[in-house]
Known about the structure:
- The protein is α/β, with parallel strands linked by helices.
- The protein has a single domain, classed as TIM Barrel (Alpha-Beta Barrel).
- Helix content is 51%, strand content 17%.
- The protein has helices at residues 10-17, 29-35, 39-47, 63-74, 88-99, 112-120, 130-135, 140-154, 168-177, 186-191, 196-212, and strands at 2-6, 24-26, 54-57, 80-85, 103-109, 125-128, 159-162, 181-184.
- Strands 1-2-3-4-5-6-7-8 form an eight-stranded parallel barrel, surrounded by six helices.
- The two termini are 36 Å apart.
- Erythose-4-phosphate binds at residues 6, 26, 28, 107, 127, 129, 131-132, 163-164, 183.
Amino acid sequence: MKFFVDTADVTEIREMAETGLLDGVTTNPSLILKSGRDVREVITEICGLTDGPVSAEVVALEASAMIAEGRELAKIARNIAIKLPMTWDGLKACKTLTGEGHMVNVTLCFSANQALLAAKAGATFISPFIGRLDDLGVDGMELIAEIRAIYDNYDFETEILAASIRSADHVKQSAIAGADVATVPPAVLKSLVNHALTDKGLQQFMDDWAKTGQKIL
Length: 217
Ligand code: E4P
């Protein structure tokens, strides 16, 4: 499973990139707002921190305007994935932009039928929003499993990008359900390494090692 980090905060992206485990980045207009930075400037900087796909979202709502914005965003760097909303106009723009060789991430997916449409439109990534479904009492993981089954039935190459991830359990369940990618907030990504027994075991090894009086270097 690939890990993308879901933020426009370059300090956090740099920190995750240094682990060598980062495969890409996703942003959206809300995350750009949170960063407080100019969209071109921050996306350019992010694209320099990873070779993986960096999702940058259009804000137009009509297909031809989306296509124009997408082409403009794609000029920023070769690893831009143009993020388009799950609407008919978004799907039309997806068909055109992927036809031109651009990566496209179709976002705001909440149903398997929407994911089917995105795959038929040639999307590189489909982003089902797990957490926002869970917020409504709907099992977001079931959606990932449904999309996996549909894509496998027809050999669609569109990658399932589990989004709106809120917890370590969401990451685990997405991996079990067969998502290709999880885009994860930095704090959740960092938390994946944690286990109380790891901390306890490490402390015991350190204490016992100190008692041996030995050194490795
Ligand atoms: C990523 O592509 C999405 O924009 C993001 O995961 C949405 O997450 P949220 O529901 O926590 O805002």
